[in-house]
Amino acid sequence: MSILKHRSGAQAQRRRTVLLSLAGAVVAAYFLAPFSWLLITSIMTEREALSTPIHWVPEKPTLVNYLSFFAPSGTRSIVGSRAAENTLPGIRNSFVAASGTAALNLVLGTLAAYAFARLRFPGRTLLMFLHLGSRMVPGIALIVPLYLVIQRLGLLDNLLALIITYLTFTLPFTIWVLKSYFQGIPRDLEEAALIDGCTWARMVVRVLLPTAAPGLVAAAMFAFMTAWNDYLFAVILTSSMAAKTAPAVVAGFATDVTTERTLMAAGGVLAVIPPLVLAFLFQRFIVQGLAAGAVKG
Amino acid sequence: MVRRRLSEASFGLWLNTPALAAILLLIGYPILYSLWISFHRYNLKRPNLFRFIWLENYWSILASDEFWSSLWITLLFTALAVAVVIALGVLIALLLNESFPGRGFVRMIVLVPWAIPPVVNGLMWQWIYDAKVGALNGLLVSLGFLTSYRGWLSDPTSALLALVTAHVWNALPFAVILLLAALQTIPGELYDAARVDGSGGWHLFLHVTFPWLAQPLLIVLILQTILAIRVFDVIYVLTAGGPGTATTTLTWQTYLTTFDSLDFGLGNAYAYIVGIITMGLALIYFRLLYSRGEFEL
Description:
The complex is a heterodimer.
Chain A: H1 2-42, H2 46-49, H3 64-70, H4 81-118, H5 124-134, H6 139-152, H7 159-183, H8 187-195, H9 200-211, H10 213-229, H11 232-237, H12 246-254, H13 261-292
Helix pairs in contact in A: 1-13, 3-13, 4-7, 4-10, 4-12, 4-13, 5-7, 7-10, 8-9, 10-13, 12-13
Chain B: H1 2-5, H2 8-38, E1 40-41, E2 51-52, H3 56-62, H4 65-97, H5 103-109, H6 118-129, H7 135-142, H8 156-184, H9 188-196, H10 202-229, H11 233-238, H12 250-260, H13 264-291
Antiparallel strand pairs in B: 1-2
Helix pairs in contact in B: 2-13, 4-8, 4-10, 4-12, 6-8, 8-10, 10-13, 12-13
């Protein structure tokens, strides 16, 4: 009797595992399929990409689209040479803007989040509402006056302008994630360090930040992604390859009918690789950082 | 040491100064400036007519058909997008919180759309929906669901649904990550206790998981609503507000008024209305959070 029961339990367990794996496969397919189409298009010749009925598997897969980014003066220079030339510098600019945004977020975010997590000061609630409220403003509403501010600062077409702009959009979320994370860390550690004669700054760098590593990684990743993904501000605040980011370059050739589709697809794939690699590397930290922080209440 | 020299209150304020300065300069000032502009007749095509007209821009917006049509489309788009993101987000997060072979892989794959800038996302879906060589047509015809290729983006209803689908795919990972993080904070003892009481399956979900998830769900709801109302890049690449005005949301209408008609006065008034609507929705959500008595700033 008990063996029978046990066996049916094991069977139910197995069925459950199979069902869960199937569901997992469906989810993976949903997230992979659209992107695969972009990947497939990027390794096709233009003729094959425009043929009907469509080919799911390229007959003659080619890397020529990718190669034209690295040697823009090659054979394909006629079709969308501007796009080919600008994609890699665009990705470099995106990387500088997104990393800068993430780094500044951590510095300013840590300071403000520490205050919210540990200190009682006048206007605390008001300030938090101000931070959260600033997220409600539609970007399109800010663009014209922001342009004027940046112009007055002499930062038009400068990556620094993008960094400080993205910083203001990402800080509220960073502060919120870090505040919650800090609140989850026992105060004893800090107090022990301070009693041992550490200065406050030393205590933060040596004790608080290492303990809060997952929260910091999560916050930095969100800031990085927001900065990397922006198009609106990049296209308005920059005008040349001195500061144009990848989305601005991609959108530029998306609306230009002369650029080959397969070339655009390859550019799109290249623009996705850096954030994707970072997301994969830090996946564990991202969920951990939020689990201890933002969503706990 | 610093803490001993400064009072807690002023230290707390000092720590907030850098973040606050950035936000005031790049969001606070632009908000006030655009409010000022929205009280003026200010069209770059006719700059001589610049003058203060109080709320006239707002009245003319409220009296226009474009406003009510784009408001309706915004609400429709937002409701659809947020509902689907929340439903799929909860299901996928619950799945990824179970253990099954391949879970680590699926957790990585979920991050793929997160790393794709909305501009690239728009481009990708444009080729999927393409009337001549799109993957969707190819798939549906080869499966026998369709007999001939369709122009998905040239029919008002399917264009809106296509836009929702593209946006949902891009926005879903953020919701899944937050919800998965929230699920991981549920103490195992809660489930054990409930199981001892003889509950299982649905009962566990309704009485343990769901109450615990309520607050993170509201947070995801707020963030996703803001994201959906602000949606811009994907419209820009995918539908440009069309066909006709089928996908002209308030944000797109703001963009058209400001940068196409160059009517800065009216455009800023539009932006303000979008901001007020977002703020109103956020306040409703915040009230829900507070009324649950679990939210602390």
